[in-house]
Amino acid sequence: MMWKSIPKSCIHVSAVCLKKSPAAKRWLERQLSDPFVKAAHSQDYRCRSAFKLIEIDDKYKILKPGYSVVDCGAAPGAWSQVAVQRVNSTGERTELSKGSVIGIDLLRIAPLDGAQFLCSHDIMNPSTHMELERLLPEAQADVILSDMAPNASGFRELDHENLVTMCLSMLDLTERVLRTGGSLVCKYWDGYLAHKLQQRLSLMFKDENRQRYYLRQQGGGGE
Known about the structure:
The active site is at residue 187. This is rRNA methyltransferase 2, mitochondrial. Keywords: Methyltransferase, rRNA processing, S-adenosyl-L-methionine, Transferase. It is a single chain. The chain is of the alpha/beta class. It has one domain (49-217): Rossmann fold (3-Layer(aba) Sandwich). It is built from 7 helices and 6 strands, in the order αααβαββαβαβαβ. It has helices at 22-33, 35-42, 50-60, 78-87, 126-135, 156-177, 194-204; strands spanning 68-72, 100-105, 115-119, 141-146, 178-189, 211-217. Strands 3-2-1-4-5-6 form a 6-stranded parallel beta sheet, with helices on both faces. β1, α4 and β2 (100-105) form a beta-alpha-beta unit. The protein is globular.
């Protein structure tokens, strides 16, 4: 378990009962019955999205010991957990090369052994790109992961626009730091601007020495 244990004396449970909306009740029921949520808890992953990356890496072998990984939109840290294990960034397996994992997010992320997090950092800010270059070995990454999502506005098209804008900024970063032969995993939601993102990706990755993997989802929201 990578979380520090909390003394029981520090835990306070409020006695206030909050009335749940029908939607909240349905969400809770889905969570309780979701096998991936249960598996995430049993395997100490921070959320079920870890299994997305595991599935991709099992198929394409993107993450290898000794690799440098950038995790964009890293909170709460599930993809970083998988990356830490697979690139051996803790150095636990001494017979293998030791990699590195750097996560970026506006949100706070609980510490994770083997990863360095740039919290309160905006992927759309050039200063974040400069800070990342400073931290990366040789200022280059072998793998860039992006499971980013904007705060839900309640309007699907607006959320889609915001995510595409974030992804385009992430691609600016990719052009700066992804080494030749590197890989990009990028999630985006389908929508009327998806073609712009696809065009940019196709131009960037027309060189066969770079690989890209799309996680395209219908609509927006959720994991």
